[in-house]
Each structure stands twice: as C-alpha cells, then as structure tokens.
From TrEMBL:
Signal peptide: 1-19
Name of protein: Alpha-glucuronidase
Xref: Pfam families: Glyco_hydro_67C, Glyco_hydro_67M
Keywords: Hydrolase, Signal
UniProt keyword Signal, yes or no: yes
GO annotation, cellular component aspect: extracellular region
Domain Glycosyl hydrolase family 67 catalytic: 115-427
The species this protein was found in: Hymenobacter coccineus
GO MF annotations in UniProt: alpha-glucuronidase activity; xylan alpha-1,2-glucuronosidase activity
GO biological process: xylan catabolic process
Length: 675
C-alpha cells in the first residue's frame, strides 16, 4: 500500500515535471473554451492527440463544432492541411495534427483562421540530438540528455515518459516529425539489445505525436559490436550483419525512421578505411532499411588535416559521387563549408549535387554563438542560407529550392537541426534558446518563412500570458503590449544574430574562437604545437603584417571555383565580394579601402564596437520590458544579457588587441550606433 502511494506520488511529480515551473515553451496553458470535435476518420493515436490538443487549447467560440477530415486532394502534399475557422482537412492523420496546432496558434496570435492550404517544404523535419549514452550531450548547454542516463540507462521511469511526451508535443506543435536520439559520434553499443529496448520505449512515447525515431550508427559496428573481422561495406558478412541488425530494429520499432552516419570525419570510421567510397557506405545501409521504407542520412561534414583548405573537402569528395547514391539516401550538408560559424557563405554542395538528394543541417545549439549565455535568435541566419541563390540551375536556384525538390527531382527531402534541448527546466538553458527550437520547426515546415513572422509568433505565444502574471500587474492593453513589448523585442531578436557576428567574427572572419574543446569566447591566438593546423585559428585568419583573411581566390586555395557563376567571379574580386564574406575569401592589407570608404582596420574595429553597443541596447530593451515579463524569466534573462555584454567586450578587446600587433594601427574612436 505504502509502495503504491509512493509510486503514485512519483507519477504525479513526473507528469507535472516541466509543467509546474512555468517553463511551458511556446505552449503555455490557456483556459480553453469547450469544443466538440467531429471526425469520420477511424480513431488512431494521432487523431486522439489532435482531438486532445483541440480540447486543451480551443480559443474560439464556446461549444463550436470542429471537423477533422481525412481526404485525398491534389492540393495537399505529404502532411499538408487545409484550414478554415472550424475545419481541418488533410491527407494524413499527422496532417490533421499539424492543422490543429496551426489553428490553435492562429487563434492565440490573432491571425486569420481561414488560412487555406499549407504543405510542408520538407517531408522530414528532424532534430539531431548529440546525446551520448552516458547522459552527457556533446555541445549541449542545457543539462544532461533527456533520453539517456548514466546509471539507470535501461529503467524507463514515469518521469522519462512524461518528459518524452512533453518533448514530442513541442516538436509536433511546430511540425517536427523526426528525432535522431543519439550523437553522430556514435557508440557501437547503440545497436546492442539494452539500448535498442530503451529506444523502443522512447519511440512509443513519441509516436502519438507523429515523431519518428532515428539512430546514429557507427560505421564500424559490424566489427566492434558484431565481432566481424571487418566493416568493409562490400563484404558479404558485413552486408548481412547490417540486414539482420536492421530487421531486429524494425521488429522492435515498426515505424523506425532510419540511420544517420558521420563517416570518415574527425576520427570516425568510414568506408574510406576500406578503400571504398561514401556511396558504397551509404548504399549498404540504404539497402538494409529499404524493405522497411527507411532512410539514410549520410553526413557530408568531412575534412582531414591533410587538406590545405578544409572549406573545399566536402565538395571534392561528394561531387564526383553525384548520382551514385540510392534514392533513400540523403546527403546531410551543414549550412556552411566549415562548421556552424556565426556567418559562413552557403556550402557549395547545395545545388552542385544534382542527382542526389541533399538536406541542410543547421545547428540550433549555440556551439559558436555564446552557448546558453548569449541571446542569439538564429532564424535570420537560416533564412539567409535558405534564401542564398546557388545559380546551379539558373537564377533562383536557392538553397531552399535545391533541397526541397523544387529544382531537382528527389524521392525524399529533409532538413535537420542539431538540438539545444536538455534536462534544464526551461529545456534550452537560455530561455531565448526556445525561440531557436521553434524557429527551426517553422522553417523546416515552410522554408520561405520570414524571421520577422517567426519572432512575432514566438514572442506572442511565449510572453503574452506572462504580461498578466508579472508581479501583480494588471493585464496591459493589447496596444500597449504591442508597442512596448512586442515591437522592441521583435527588433531585438532580429538584430541579435548580426550583433553576435559583429562582436565575434565580423567581415567574414571565422573559426577564431577559443580552440580548446569548449569553443567558448575568443582565441585568435591559439596555435599550440601539437594541435592540428586545420583546427587552430591562425590558420583561418592568417593575420600578419601584410594583412588578414584567408585567400580562397583563384590565386589562393581556389575555393571560389566551387561556386557557380556569377558567384565565383563575384567572390573572387574584393571589389564585388560582399563585406560579410570579405575575409572568408580574401587576404587583404590592413589599409584596404572598403566600400564604406574606411580602411579595413577601421571597419573591423567599428564592427566589433558596434556589436558591443548592440548588446548594451538589448539590455536596455529588456530592462524596459520588465512590466510584461514574469519575475523569474525577467531576472534570468537580465543576468544572461549582462554576461553577454561582458562577452562582447571580451571578444572585441581580445581580437582587436591581438590583430593590432600585426596592423600596428590605432583603434578608432567608438561611434554610438543608431538602432
Ligand atoms: O562542430 C563540430 C563539433 C563537434 C561535432 C562535429 C560534427 C558531433 O565541434 O562536437 O561532433 O562538429 O558536426 O560532427
């Protein structure tokens, strides 16, 4: 009896886990009006979720009838839906669920309800969790893994289940339908029985929200886990090992999504270890999952110390293999050619692979962007990448269109985001990190969505309620809230990424962060003897008495040649290369004349200075938002912004003083920027 009592107590505690503390993400509870859901579709897990969400969040007329209808319709693709004020139509049950979430979002944010048809840009919208089986998270800044734990890896608790459900619900509310639940630096143990059993338990909780589970696998698993002599992708024993292992996985999880592979990169094993190609490796796994409808996401993040310009390697390795991959393989390409830097030009692989499906990989966790301290809204960065014209199939061949099936025929399409989620009660460490999770889902659903709309939606959903609960405040009038909270905070979010570029790596500088493992803060001086040259910052900025920047022109590494004209010529000439990418592509003298008329040195200094001013203005904006925010989030974010302001000053001083030893020029006087 006593035991039962305690179990019940535990269960209740678990179910209210993240609910109690007010960290409800953008799904904050509202008093809902009664609603009747009418549906002819046969009851299923997803339909039950859709109904439950409607009942939980309905803000329309009390007692309304809402019709959920499954129907075939030429206008509806994949999980798309058609919306009116009281009906959702879709071709799939997942589509009904996404339609319901959209209807509720529109009710809450005051947008018109008769929205017509909305189809997802990508078939698969997937989070990559870099979660290790011991519960740690690589590049995670929000606590331990929500999926794995060190000591009790296999005991699935009620608390685990509640957490996974809350996580999946948040995913589904923004259209995310896949989760890769372990690190791409994968352990061979992932495919062992106990870990697969836990994977099944996770999949069971995610399923009612339409989120499929995927696994990252180590390419050498046949040898390391299976005890085979080799993991050569063409070896018959290896082929049958993967087939059997895959069967075992699908027997546990019939709707398992497939595999993600980081191969021949940063010490990970891969097909090249056996003299085979990426295509041999990817096709091996693709054939194993094909009978079950599974996918293989094969990462193109490859580079080695031998390469003179790391930015070129992925293109060099993958372009010759175009057309050699099975149609259930998608090549997963980071947005830029190096590594999630505050700003990179788009990876030249986008659009260059014409007979192979390619998917963008964005990093939601802020590895190089102040981690869980700095407030950086990433939608503008992703919008910039997706909107970049590759010219690969004529003007208008944007990264978005080259990956979503609009330009090239491709059987499957997907977009991945490296998650920023952990056990922290607010899920993401910095409260505003939630906005990046939200933004990823929204952009994966609609890759032409504007950052401004995403910011507006997220702020309304996340803070509108809190204005009424802020330290005994009466609810502000909507006009007042719009003018004094929504408008300035939208501006802040939209400016925040450029501010981070300004105070850390302006004008195309990159990889000048501390090169110790943590990647936090400045480190342009890093050049330890034993470290790989291609990991240490002097390699990337090349600062010397004669100037600064990495020469990737035709006279240098010739990385420009990987871009289609007119970009190659535009990037190759410092007179036409956009300022944003100047030092990415060019090594230029300190007194180089910029488009502004200033010297490169002065321009650099002013960008750093501007970044510092911008963060100080963010602090003022937030301070003025106090009446509209609950005390807890207000204080937390205020502290984070204070720390960010310190970070910005540190970046500015460290970088300018470091570069000054080469430029030998005075630092120009600070200019108060207009906001
Ligand atoms: O950005 C680098 C990170 C590694 C990461 C790697 C990758 C998972 O520093 O931590 O490893 O990229 O994307 O594979």
């Amino acid at each position: 009896m006593k035991q039962l009592f305690f179990s019940l107590l535990l269960l209740c505690g678990a179910l209210t886990l993240k609910a109690e503390d007010g960290h409800q993400l953008w799904l904050r509870p509202h008093p809902a009006a009664p609603v009747t859901v009418v549906s002819a579709a046969k009851n299923s897990l997803l339909l039950a979720t859709a109904k439950q969400e409607l009942q939980r969040g309905w803000q329309g007329a009390a007692g309304a009838n809402v019709r959920l209808t499954i129907k075939k319709d030429k206008a509806l693709r994949n999980d798309g839906f058609r919306l009116s004020a009281t009906s959702v139509e879709a071709a799939t049950e997942a589509g009904l669920l996404y339609g319901v979430f959209e209807l509720l979002r529109r009710q809450q944010t005051g947008q018109p309800l008769a929205a017509g048809v909305s189809n997802p840009s990508y078939e698969l919208r997937v989070l990559n969790h870099w979660d290790n089986l011991d519960g740690s998270v690589e590049r995670g800044y929000a606590g331990q893994s929500i999926f794995w734990r060190k000591d009790s890896a296999f005991a699935v608790t009620a608390r685990d289940k509640a957490l996974w459900q809350a996580y999946a619900r948040a995913d589904a509310s923004v259209g995310i339908n896949g989760a890769v639940i372990n690190n791409v630096n994968s352990s061979p143990q992932m495919l062992s029985g106990p870990y697969l059993a836990r994977t099944k338990a996770i999949a069971d909780e995610l399923r009612p929200f339409g989120v499929k589970v995927f696994l990252s696998v180590k390419f050498s698993s046949p040898a390391l886990l299976g005890g085979l002599k080799t993991s050569d992708p063409l070896d018959p024993a290896v082929i049958s090992w993967w087939k059997n292992k895959t069967k075992e996985v699908y027997a546990l999880i019939p709707d398992f999504g497939g595999f993600v592979v980081k191969a021949s990169s940063e010490g990970q094993p891969g097909p090249q270890d056996y003299g085979r190609t990426h295509a041999d490796g990817a096709n091996l796994l693709a054939d194993a999952v094909r009978p079950f409808g599974g996918l293989v996401m094969w990462r193109a993040f490859v580079y080695s110390p031998a390469d003179k310009d790391r930015a070129k390697q992925a293109y060099n390795e993958f372009v010759p293999l175009d057309g050699k991959f099975r149609d259930n393989v998608i090549i997963q390409v980071k947005n830029g050619p190096i590594d999630f830097q505050p700003r990179e030009p788009f990876s030249p692989l986008f659009g260059a692979l014409k007979k192979t499906a390619v998917m963008p990989e964005f990093q939601i966790t802020q590895e190089y962007l102040g981690q869980s301290t700095d407030l950086v809204f990433l939608a503008p960065m992703w919008e910039e990448c997706l909107g970049s014209d590759t010219y690969q199939a004529g003007p208008g061949s944007t990264v978005a269109r080259c990956t979503d099936g609009s330009v090239y025929p491709q059987r499957h399409s997907a977009m991945a985001g490296v998650a920023n989620v952990g056990l922290a009660t607010n899920w993401t460490g910095q409260d505003f990190g939630q906005a990046n999770w939200y933004a990823f889902g929204r952009l994966a659903w609609n890759n032409t969505m504007k950052s401004s709309q995403i910011a507006d939606e997220w702020l309304r959903l996340t803070f509108a309620e809190s204005a009424t609960t802020a330290a005994g405040q009466p609810a502000p009038a909507a006009a007042d809230w719009n003018a004094h909270f929504l408008a300035p905070m939208t501006q802040l979010l939209l400016a925040s990424r450029e501010a981070a570029v300004n105070y850390s790596m302006p004008l195309g500088l990159h990889h000048i962060m501390s090169a110790t493992y943590d990647h936090y803060g400045p480190g342009p001086w890093w050049a330890p003897d034993k470290m790989r040259a291609d990991w240490t910052p002097p390699y990337y900025h090349q600062a010397a008495a004669n100037g600064v920047g990495f020469d990737r022109t035709t006279a240098g590494s010739n990385a420009v040649s990987q871009y289609h004209e007119p970009l190659a010529a535009q990037f190759n000439d410092p007179a036409t290369c956009p300022d944003e990418y100047l030092l990415w592509f060019h090594h230029l003298p300190w007194d180089f004349k910029m488009k502004s008329g200033r010297t490169l040195w002065d321009e650099l200094a002013l960008h750093y200075d501007l970044g510092v001013h911008q963060v100080r203005q963010f602090q003022q904006t937030w301070d003025a938002a106090r009446p509209y925010v609950d005390a807890e989030r207000f204080a937390t974010v205020q502290n984070k912004l204070r720390a960010q302001s310190g970070n910005a000053v540190l970046w500015k001083d460290a970088c300018l003083l470091y570069f000054q030893q080469f430029s030998r020029l005075p630092i120009p006087a600070s200019v108060e920027p207009p906001m």
